[in-house]
Amino acid sequence: MSTEISSAHRSHQLGRIFIYGSLIVLAAFYLMPLWVMIVTSLKSLDEIYSGSFIGLPKLITIEAWEKAWGQACIGTACDGLRPYFVNSLLMVIPAVVLSTGIGAINGYILTKWRFPGSNLVFGLLLFGCFLPFQAVILPMAQLLGKLRLSGTIPGLVLVHTVYGISFTTLFFRNYFITIPDELTRAAQIDGAGFFRIFFSVMLPASLPIIVVSCIWQFTQIWNDFLFGVSFTAGQSSPITVALNNIVNVTMGRKQYNVDMAAAMIAAIPTLIVYVVAGRYFVRGLTAGAVKG
Amino acid sequence: MSTLEIDRVRKSYASLEVLKEVSISIGTGDFLVLLGPSGCGKSTLLNMIAGLETITGGEIRIAGKVVNNLSPKDRDIAMVFQSYALYPTMTVRQNIEFGMKIRGLPAAERDKAVKIAADLLQMSHLLDRKPSQLSGGQRQRVAMGRAIVRQPKLFLFDEPLSNLDAKLRVDMRTEIKRLHARLGTTIVYVTHDQIEAMTLATRVAVMKDGVVQHLDEPQAVYDRPANVYVARFVGSPAMNIIPGVLEVNGSTVSAVINVANRPAASISGMSLSGDAARKYAGKKVLVGIRPENFSITTGNARPTVSVDIDVVEPTGPDTLVVFQLGGVEVTARLPPKQANAGQEAILSVDTSKVVIFDADTETRID
Ligand SMILES: Nc1ncnc2c1ncn2[C@@H]1O[C@H](COP(=O)(O)OP(=O)(O)O)[C@@H](O)[C@H]1O
Ligand SMILES: [Mg+2]
Fold it and tell me: pLDDT tens, A23-38?
């Protein structure tokens, strides 16, 4: 009897060790590139070329970071990533706010103010989620040309907002459908109108999905390269395009440390967003109804 | 003055006709209960009164004024929903105040109204809580408070008690009745629970498939149901509907009912109009007898039936006795310990309470 229990216990423990062991190995494998990036960015170019690639730097220097941020040459200008970082911020903030806002209104209408054909509209909007980037580039370029927004940041904001609406609408529609219709009806009887209900009743109850939508949109837009490279040029490029230029266009020795630092600078905002709001992200994806 | 007139109102969703020419009219201070099974159109009708659904045909008048094209906020109504529909991110106070804020009432007036409602519903200590921190009964109270501060012409309730457990449901029922007595406001109340209808209503409208089957005072609906459907829906256990044949002998009307393995029973003494008696003499009818209208024979002059008892179900205050009569299962409500399963019983019938229905149309014959 007792030996049975202890043997069961032992095999349980073995299982645990196996699970944790493989998780650690996989995590290490997965984190390897990040490790290489970090240590490389903290080494001097001489040290890198003298051979050590994976090992810790002998002398830690943030020279590469400074260079990537403020001095690296992109095209003819040598101002580093900073102006492009600012470009990306000027692009991502309005685009995230607009696409999330429009998605929220869309979701609200598609669930609480249904109209004949509203399901069809939703279906067509969903279609947009499956539309590949490549398919919209040409017509979008023509449209931007007509609007005289070609090669500008506002143009990029427009592109990302339009492309993001499908996703944000889906998020909000699926969230609002779990909020009972009786809630909007009660508000109607209280005398609240379309926008009053939206701002006073629906939005306060949708914090989790607002966070999901913002994180999703932020990540998509910040990391986008294709739209950026297609619709902007030179000084108005977002950081992803600038990063590509730094990495691909070099004279003399390839500056691995600067490349790595630049790549991480480009990745940091998304990282911060996940760390700060990640909790809500998981909660928002799993949260169902707001129980009244 | 807050009367409600529902005048030949119809509702269709595309080709689906949900309400067919519903006409109901009630006076100031009435408590109208719309009673019917799930899906019969009660909520739809209530929402049309509220202005939350469009009216396909007919007219709804509140206090004499046609409201067909008025928005909910202009109809001077307040509504309590089944799911309570409290705003989840607002405190109880904010929930109650929300409508007053929209109407632009000054803070002092709002505070006063909240205080009155909170005192009336004994929820002053809950005002700063969020709905998620309240029990079902408390949420129900808040929902009623939100309706009360409106001081509407008409209160609308959509199954307000059906999410509560049995005990609380009875308590809240009493509370709603007390509230109605205190405020005297006209109420329309939707439920599928016939006990709620009986206990609360001054007028009951029994509905089926979008048609009002019977509209009357609860006691009248119980005693003289308009048709077999109403007879079966109101009352628990339901009224027994027993096939029989009507016999008319001079001024005496009797119903002959087959009893298994025994001579047929004849229950006589029902009152029918001369016309009806002539029309149905010798015809098949349905005889409606409520369980409590059977009793153990004590030698009075009432007609009797002898039956073999199948099942005995004591409920405490009385005992339900089940037997076969006229080829159907019949339930009688008797005092405790007066009958045993497997034995014969001689039961007398209170014929003044017996109701006769047409066997084909199932409507009541008078
Ligand atoms: N928006 C709608 N579209 C189509 N049919 C509906 C709609 N709302 C209600 N119905 C139908 O109308 C009927 C009555 O519904 P309802 O009034 O909610 O019933 P009850 O409240 O009596 O349970 C049901 O058969 C329901 O399926
Ligand atoms: Mg209903």
Answer: 999 999 999 989 889 9
Ligand 1 proximal residues by C-beta, below 6 Å: B 13, 16, 18, 36, 38-44
Residue of A nearest to B77 (CA): A189
CA distance B328 to chain A (A): 44
Q: A73 or A228, which is more confident?
A: A228
Sequence-distant (≥ 6) Cβ neighbours of residue B188 within 8 angstroms: B4, B26, B32, B34, B46, B49, B154, B155, B156, B157
- Can you give the residue ranges of every domain in chain B? 4-233, 240-365
CATH homologous superfamily of B240-365:
Nucleic acid-binding proteins (2.40.50.140)
Of B71, B81, B103, the CB nearest to A186: B81
pTM over 0.90: no
Q: Looking at the partner chain, which of A188, A190, A205 has a beta carbon nearest the beta carbon of B88?
A: A205
The protein residue whose alpha carbon is closest to atom 7 in ligand 1 is B13
* CA-based max dimension of chain A: 82
Nearest residue by C-alpha to atom 25 in ligand 1? B39
Q: Give the number of C-alpha atoms closer than 13 A to the C-alpha of residue B211, restricted to the C-beta side.
A: 6
Indicate the domain borders of chain A. Answer: 2-66, 82-290
**How high is the pLDDT of residue B168?**
87
ipTM of the complex: 0.84
Buried/exposed A62-72: b ≥16 CB within 10 Å, e otherwise: ebbbebbbeeb
Q: What angle do CA A35, A40, A43 make, to 5 degrees?
A: 135
Whether residues B98 and A192 touch (CB distance < 8 A) is answered with yes
Residue pair B239/B226 in contact by the 8 Å Cβ criterion: no
**Which ligand has the shortest distance to the CA of B52?**
1
CB count in 10 Å sphere of residue B296: 15
Best of A189, A195, A206, A209 to substitute, by most chain B Cβ atoms within 10 angstroms, is A189
Fold of A82-290: MetI-like fold (1.10.3720)
Band the pLDDT of A290: cuts 50, 70, 90: very low
CB neighbours (10 Å) of residue A133?
14
Contact call for residues B131 and A292 (beta carbons, < 8 A): yes
CATH number for domain B4-233, candidates 3.40.190.10, 3.40.50.300, 3.40.980.10, 1.10.3720.10? 3.40.50.300
Q: Which residues of A touch B51 (CB under 8 A)?
A: 188
Q: Among B44, B54, B56, B159, which is best to mutate for testing ligand 1, by the most ligand atoms less than 8 A from CB?
A: B44
Contact A292 B73 (CB under 8 A): no
Which amino acid, A55?
G
Among the partner-chain residues B50, B71, B85, the one whose CB lies closest to the CB of A292 is B85
Chain B residue with Cα closest to A203: B89
Residue-wise burial string across A106-119, b where 16 or more C-beta atoms lie within 10 A, e elsewhere: bbbbbbbeeeeeee
| A36 DSSP 8-state letter | H
Per-residue pLDDT of chain B (366 residues; tens, 9 = 90+): 689 999 999 999 988 999 999 999 999 999 999 999 999 999 999 999 999 999 999 999 999 999 999 999 999 999 999 999 999 999 999 999 999 999 999 999 999 999 999 998 889 999 999 999 999 889 999 999 999 999 899 999 999 998 888 888 998 899 899 999 999 999 999 999 999 999 999 999 999 999 999 999 999 999 999 999 999 999 989 999 999 999 988 888 889 998 888 888 889 888 888 888 889 999 999 999 999 999 988 776 677 888 999 999 999 999 999 999 999 999 999 999 888 888 888 999 999 999 999 999 999 998
Closest CA of chain A from B132, distance in Å: 6
Chain A, chain B: beta-carbon pairs less than 8 Å apart: 71
